[in-house]
Structure formats: structure tokens, C-alpha cells
Amino acid sequence: MADFTKKYDVLVVGGGNAALCSAISAQQSGASVLVLEAAPKFYRGGNTRHTRNMRCAHDSATETLTGPYSEEEFWDDLLRVTGGHTDEILARDMIRQSKAILPWLAEQGVRFQPPLGGTLSLGRTNSFFLGGGRAMLNALYRSAERLGVEVAYDAEVVELDIDGNTFVSATVARGGERLVVHAANLVAAAGGFEANIEWLKTYWGEAAGNFLIRGTPYNRGSLLKVLLDKGVEPVGDPTQCHAVAIDARAPRFDGGIITRLDCVVFGIVVNKRAERFYDEGEDLWPKRYAIWGRLVAAQPEQVAYIVFDSPSLTLFMPSLYPPFEAGSVRELAGKLGLDADRLAATVDRFNRAVRPGTFDHTVLDDCRTEGLTPPKSHWARPICTAPFYAYPVRPGITFTYLGTRVDRESRMLMKGGAASANMFAAGEIMAGNVLGRGYAAGIGMTIGSVFGRIAGREAAANARN
Ligand SMILES: Cc1cc2nc3c(=O)[nH]c(=O)nc-3n(C[C@H](O)[C@H](O)[C@H](O)COP(=O)(O)OP(=O)(O)OC[C@H]3O[C@@H](n4cnc5c(N)ncnc54)[C@H](O)[C@@H]3O)c2cc1C
After folding, report:
1. Ligand 1 pocket at CB < 6 A
2. Which residue has the higher pLDDT, 241 or 129?
3. 37-60 burial, b for 16+ CB within 10 Å, e for fewer?
4. Model pLDDT for residues 322-377, shown as the tens digit of each residue
5. CB neighbour list of residue 448: distance below 8 Å, 6 or more residues apart
6. Ligand 1 centroid to 404 CA: how many Å?
7. How far is the CA of 268 from the centre of ligand 1 (A)?
């Protein structure tokens, strides 16, 4: 039972992967640890609940990984996706320490499975959790509790007392009450601010009102805001985030992976004006999937429609919801609320621009358009065989990158550059140190586990001094 009157060595705020890795690591290092999770127990674990895999460097194939993935290759991948917008020292540290993460997680009872097929060609680089993110989390909670970590649910930290660069206490909103908890050290592992639509609006304007949030409604950035207001140095561009195209009928929060749509390569994508706006055949997954959220965010009313015909229907992972279906393109337009003449003209123009080729969606094939703006560079086939289908899509925000700057000990840095005396951060809340922009599948969990372990260990060491 959590005892709010006790002064713990380490207070961990958050309840996902980063928080649990921090808590376990701190407790294993001899500290007393309290975890405060804003969500009720059933919804514990933030965005981590939705995950499937993580990316770690390793020297050779294993039972569940098809081959080696060197530190240098991981670094090259990170450099490419971020375009160099990363802190090289922290990123290289993370990659090196990622090598020890899989066996450490296995010691905590997390189990892995062989790679999944389908659209995810990650079998060499990424380890998949047996039972998904929720099973992974349950194993971490069991391990933490066995070690003696105390956990309180429905416990949102809403205020901090920070004296200069030193954490003193946290105010917790719990069941209508406000309680003050003292601890010798703080680990902030409370995710990003993606579920706070009002905060998103300050950077995206009213458009953010049409965004859907793929994960937990509890990542409202309440802790991040307090930390930044109280002198912690921010890191990351507030408009940068991981965003994909998801089914527009998904719930506002927590739609998870089953609402994601990755069938743009099989058809064309049009906006409310029934006009195409980007090359649907630009690149292979996973390079393409994380750009469509932003592309749709820039369209009128932040909505778009993926239009395709019957030969493509069974070639991709379906969404939770069925596609709209019609016997003609005009009829389809009616069902989508689009101008029928315009959609028919857009499809016709596209069909006439398609050049013959050998269709293969697993490689950059030679099926392309000619004389069309924007072009479709690969996988272009005429949309001409009824029934015709469409999925409506909206931007689905996965997580934001604005966070707290940290050093190699995962210790927060204050404005002006001084290290905090006793405040550490791990996971999404500091992901912007490594991810200035872009994303490599599975790296969110790497950031949480590696920096979580570091933060917990360092916070415990600090408590002993
Ligand atoms: C649908 C989906 C699929 C994904 N798939 C993958 C994947 O396969 N691989 C991968 O690497 N990444 C994936 N990600 C990203 C991944 O989920 C995150 O990078 C990772 O889970 C972050 O871990 P975290 O512990 O930092 O945050 P979270 O797991 O989100 O945990 C944050 C916690 O903080 C709590 N909290 C927030 N504010 C407060 C407060 N003020 N007081 C107390 N508690 C608070 C929340 O309730 C939550 O429990 C996915 C994300 C989504 C949404």
C-alpha cells in the first residue's frame, strides 16, 4: 500500500514502460520507490499498452530475431530518419545500452515472440512482445511489485515544489483530494502532451480540434508543463510529433493500432475537394507511414479519403471499420460527401496517366504515372474495377516530441545548463533529446527502457549520497 506520509527515496511519475523500468531499476539499486499513475488501474500503462515491438542493437540472430543489428546500423537508421536532428552522445549511449535491454526485460518476465509478417518487415531489428504491450506491462508491474515498489493509481501529479534546481515535493490530485508527497528524488516518466488538444492548438491552431489521439487520454502533459514552467530546459520542436493516417471513424482517444490505415499505395488519396495532394507511391513502409498524418493535417478540415478498387481490397491489413463501397466512382463520391464530377475527373485523370508495369507492392516497382502532378511514382494501377472503395482518414497523433532536456545520467538540465540536483526523466517526456524529428519503428520503447533504467539507477544512487 502506498503511504503518502512517508518520504520515499524515489518518486516515479507515470505508469508506462519508462516509469516501470525506472521503478524496477531504482528498487533493484536499493531505493524505496513510489509510482504515481494518473490513470485508474484498468487503464494503467499509457501508450505502452498499445505497443507491439521495440528496436534494440544485437550482435547475432536469436530465437526471435532473424539476424544481427549492429550499433552502427542502428545509428545510421536514426541519423537517416531524424535528418541529423538528434543528440549524438545521448543517442549513441542509448543504442549501446539497448544491447542489454532484451535480456533485462526477460529477467523481469517479459516474453518475446518471432517477428510478425504482413506490412511489418522488422524481423531482424525489432523484438515483438508476446501478448503485445499490455502483456509486457503486466510483467513489469508484477516484477516491480515483487521487488517492493509501491504503486498508486488515479494519482495525477498536478504541481511540483521545486527550489532552484532541487525537487522538494509533488502535489497529487486523488479522489477529489490534493495530497503532498515528499521524496528525495523525482523521475518524470509521464509521457508527452498529445492528449491535450488545447495545448496542441497553441502550435497547430484550430486544426488540432480534428486530430485523433491514438493512445491514452491521460498523457495531457500536466507534469511536463509544470517542469518547463519551473525552469527545466525544454528540448524538441513543439510541432514535431509522430502522426499517421488513421480511420476517421476512430474514437478520439485510444483507438490503438487497429485503426491505422496503410493502403495509400493501393489507390489514390484525395482531400475534401476530391483532389490528390501527394505522391501515394513515394516510398516503402516504414518510411512512408509516418508522413501521412502530417499530410492529412494540412488538408481542408483535416480529412482525406483513400480511394481504391476491388483488386486491391485483400492486399492490406484492414481497419477496424469496413471501407465505404459503391458500384461506381460517382456513387462512392456521394457516400463520402464529395463532389461526384470532381472525384470522377480526378480518378479519370489518374487512370489516363498510369503507365503499364509489373505490379509488386513489396519493392519500388515500375508501375508509375506520367505527366501527372503530383505523380504516383510506384504501384500505380488504374482504378477501374467495381466495386470501388474508400476509407476516410484523419491525422492520428501517436506522441509529441517537446520534452525536458537531460544529460547522460538522464538527469534533467535547467535553463542555463546546470544539472538538476535530484530530477530525472525517461521515455516520451524526454524523447525529443533523441528524436528531433522523424521516427524509426520501435524506438519509442527503446527510449523508455534505456533511459528508464538509467534514471532509476541514478536516482537511487543520488538517494544514497
Ligand atoms: C497505437 C500506438 C502504437 C505504438 N506502437 C509502438 C511500438 O510498437 N513500438 C514502440 O517502440 N513504440 C510504439 N508506440 C509509442 C510508445 O507507445 C511510446 O513511445 C512509449 O510507450 C512511451 O512510454 P512512456 O512510458 O514514456 O509513456 P506512456 O507509456 O504513455 O506512459 C505515460 C504514463 O504517464 C501517466 N501520466 C501522465 N501524466 C501524469 C501525471 N501528471 N501524473 C501521473 N501520471 C501521469 C499516464 O497515465 C501513463 O501511464 C506506440 C504508440 C501508440 C499510441
Report:
1. 13-19, 36-39, 45-48, 50-54, 156-157, 189-191, 214-216, 218-219, 222-223, 256-257, 398-399, 427-428, 442-445, 448
2. 129
3. bbbeeebbbbbbbbbbbbbbbbee
4. 999 999 999 999 999 999 999 999 999 999 999 999 999 889 999 999 999 999 99
5. 16, 17, 18, 21, 48, 189, 426, 427, 428
6. 16
7. 32
